[in-house]
């Protein structure tokens, strides 16, 4: 297992649709192991393969439920069904979202309160999860990465403009900018 560099917004792999996984082999298992190790070290609650420079439809997650029971896994080739998204501005206190590919920043974003996600695991066994609240947000966020979208792409004004200014000020928004969890002093 290895911790891999996390790509920051502007890297082409983050802004294009990832490819379906077609080959389930040792290489894929090693990728998933590296994703878990990188996610844990960052620390994050989810990590999509494009965030470590791999354009495949794979993401890992680790988000405990309300009773602190572990919910940790991998979903490969996911399909996401969204619940209703309430048509009102995101709450600036309770709907803040962050991203390891826009490290250290948080902005309010309205998301669906519930989702159903389907895909497969490393053994190609079906995975189907219904999630609500923050767990649903994690799945929406990671699924977006697989479609070449970052949460900052979905922000409403004035947050969209503010995030664009921050990205410019930090020297992001161009290819080749990464950070390495455990070595770089960045926060999610």
UniProtKB/TrEMBL annotation:
User: Which keywords belong to this entry?
Assistant: Hydrolase, Metal-binding, Protein biosynthesis
| Matching SUPFAM superfamilies | Peptide deformylase (SSF56420)
In alphabetical order, the GO MF annotations are:
metal ion binding; peptide deformylase activity
Q: Name one Pfam family in it.
A: Pep_deformylase
- Give me any GO biological process, just one: translation
Task: Report the function annotation for this chain.
Answer: Removes the formyl group from the N-terminal Met of newly synthesized proteins.
Enumerate the NCBIfam families for this protein: pept_deformyl, PRK00150.1-3
Instruction: Please state which protein family the record places this protein in.
Output: Belongs to the polypeptide deformylase family.
Query: Which named protein is this?
Result: Unannotated protein
